[in-house]
Design goal:
Strand content: 25-35%
Helix content: 25-40%
CATH topology of the largest domain: D-amino Acid Aminotransferase, Chain A, domain 1
Bound molecules: adenosine-5'-diphosphate, magnesium ion
CATH class of the largest domain: Alpha Beta
Number of helices: 15
Strand order of the largest sheet: 16-15-10-11-14-19-23-20
CATH superfamily of the largest domain: ATP-grasp fold, B domain
CATH architecture of the largest domain: 2-Layer Sandwich
Radius of gyration: 21 Å
Number of strands: 23
């Protein structure tokens, strides 16, 4: 089949990489892609926001399946547009994507479905929001209801900060329309996990648990970023948690969405907070996470295109894919200064030592250890044959190995072979898992 991937980051490169290995894929396109996707997919110069343009292209090229990476086009209705013209597309409808597009809607569905979440309420009026803050005794989190590019959530130490957050969103309109409604929640403590499940509207199958690292510096210090690294599985939390999340979160949510007449198709990504036996959903996303997707694709087994088509057509079966018991780790290389101001256009060196035909000592070692390594492009550009930095997150170095510590060590070995001015990375990706000393859970999740 002819497959079109929409997006241009590390997540989309990882999806293209796995799709390119699908026996059912005859031709692969990526809009608008990056120098990494360009090595395996034809680049289509249409931005993810140009929904009509993408649909026209899919019609002209007779695309059999479109796979959408980022959330904005999903929330804007790209799936409805494609389906109106009889085109197959992997992702939720606009109505179902509201699970990510509106945090108050997500809470409404969770309440209806009995999904555990933080205590809280939503507000359209700043006076009522302020009254609520003043009446609460616990620490609070103030969230813009709509998409705010990861900047709409304020974790507040005290009432003063919560009142400031309300004022910023509702009086100063700091997040535009996304902040005209707010969700105010109790502040939960615990460990954060990302949980992914493929859903075909009626049934769901788990893709697994991933832990990402949002803060820019080691030890979770400094401002939040789009994501500095990830690893999967998360050995501290085994199959028990996976089963529990399917039972308490994914399946009831899917049933509630179906009952509302807006069945959810695509990948449902639950952001979880886990503390002892306490499990709560922080938010839903309706697409793959980045960099979680890079680690997940390293573990995915089977024909990805066929699996995603099954989801799109509402006929997902247990046998369609498997998740490797091997571990994956992703280390993101960022531009100096990110997530604030940073320079771009700086030459990147060292990739050819890792990816080229030259058998460097490292490559020989990885082959002997049966370690797999892939460098996904996030913010890069090509100029006259030279690879340059072109974004805050530049590359997502991803390794897969039988043991998590090998995957992490290999990702760092490769990350250290890559050079560009101002390069930054976290040194503690997966450290929590290594410190707990538990070996990864073995045994494939399901399927063949
Ligand atoms: N109720 C909560 N208690 C504690 N921390 C929270 C809570 N809700 C969100 N957070 C923190 O804020 C981050 C962002 O919130 P989230 O709901 O995921 O919104 P978004 O990803 O849209 O910014 C989470 O990753 C988590 O670290
Ligand atoms: Mg989040």
């Amino acid at each position: 089949m002819k497959v079109l991937v929409v997006g241009k980051g590390g997540r989309e490169h990882a999806l293209c990489w796995r799709l390119a290995q699908s026996p059912s894929v005859s031709e692969l396109f990526c809009a608008e892609g990056n120098p990494g996707t360009a090595q395996i997919a034809a680049t289509v110069p249409i931005a993810a926001g140009e929904i009509e343009g993408l649909r026209c292209f899919a019609q002209q090229e007779r695309i059999d399946l479109c796979v959408v990476g980022p959330e904005q086009p999903l929330v804007d209705g790209i799936v409805d547009e494609f389906e109106r013209y009889g085109l197959r597309i992997f992702g939720p409808s606009k109505a179902a994507a509201t699970l990510e597009g509106s945090k108050s809607f997500a809470r409404l569905v969770m309440r209806q479905a009995g999904v555990p979440m933080a205590e809280g309420e939503s507000f359209d009026d700043s006076a009522a929001a302020r009254d609520y803050v003043l009446a609460r005794r616990t620490a609070l989190v103030v969230k813009a209801d709509g998409l705010a590019m990861g900047k709409g959530v304020a974790i507040c130490e005290d009432r003063e900060q919560a009142l400031d957050a309300v004022a910023r969103a509702m009086d100063e309109h700091r997040f535009g329309a996304a902040g005209s409604r707010l969700v105010i929640e109790e502040r939960l403590k615990g460990e954060e996990l990302s949980f992914f499940a493929l859903c075909d509207g009626e049934r769901a199958l788990p893709l697994g648990i991933v832990q990402d690292h949002k803060a820019i510096y080691d030890g979770d210090h400094g401002p939040n970023t789009g994501g500095m690294g990830a690893y999967s599985p998360v050995p501290q939390f085994g199959r028990d948690l996976e089963d529990r999340v399917m039972r308490e979160v994914i399946n009831p949510t899917l049933a509630a969405m179906s009952e509302r007449g807006t069945p959810f198709r695509g990948v449902l990504f639950a952001g979880l907070m886990v503390s002892g036996e306490r499990l709560n959903v922080l938010e839903f996303n309706v697409r793959f996470g980045d960099p979680e997707c890079e680690s997940l694709m390293m573990r995915f087994e089977g024909d990805l295109a066929e699996t995603l088509l099954q989801v799109a057509e509402g006929r997902l079966t247990e046998r369609s894919f498997g998740i490797s018991p091997r571990s994956a780790a992703t280390v993101v290389l960022t531009s100096g200064g990110y997530p604030d101001k940073y320079r771009t256009g700086l030459p990147i060196r060292g990739l050819e030592r890792i990816e080229g035909s030259d058998p460097s000592a490292a490559k020989v070692g990885w082959a002997l250890k049966r370690v797999r390594l892939k460098i996904f492009h996030a913010g890069t550009a090509l100029a006259g044959g030279q690879l340059l930095t072109a974004g805050g997150r530049v590359l997502a170095v991803t390794a897969g190995a039988a043991e998590l510590h090998d995957a992490i060590a290999t990702a760092y070995e490769a990350a250290d072979m890559i050079e560009f001015e101002g390069k930054h990375l976290r040194r503690d990706i997966g450290r929590r898992a290594l410190q707990c000393g538990v070996q990864p859970v073995t045994g494939a999740a399901h399927g063949s």
